[in-house]
Design brief:
Layout: H1 3-11, H2 13-29, H3 33-40, H4 44-52, H5 59-68
Helix pairs in contact: 3-4, 3-5
């Protein structure tokens, strides 16, 4: 109901969507965080930080994650709302 709260929440929507996409991709691949980490050449805690939103991964890291779960990255720019 609070417009200021809603505005701040809406700013985070892309981050929430990315996290959801990562979690869904890992689930569909049937992998644990540890398995993804091994495929990425990193640790399970790094994967946990990426999936929780506590770390802002760069495109290279997202590409490594995507490859680890059998996916690829697709970036697109869309009109501002």
């Amino acid at each position: 109901k609070d417009p200021a709260f809603r505005a701040e929440y809406d700013k985070l929507k892309p981050e929430f969507e990315l996290i959801r996409a990562l979690l869904e991709a890992r689930a569909k691949a049937g992998l644990t965080q540890a398995e993804v980490a091994k495929r990425m050449g990193t640790t399970q805690s790094v994967v946990a930080r990426i999936e929780s939103g506590r770390a802002a991964p760069n495109l290279k890291t997202l590409d490594r994650y995507a490859r680890a779960v059998g996916r690829r990255i697709a970036v697109k720019l869309v009109p501002a709302a």
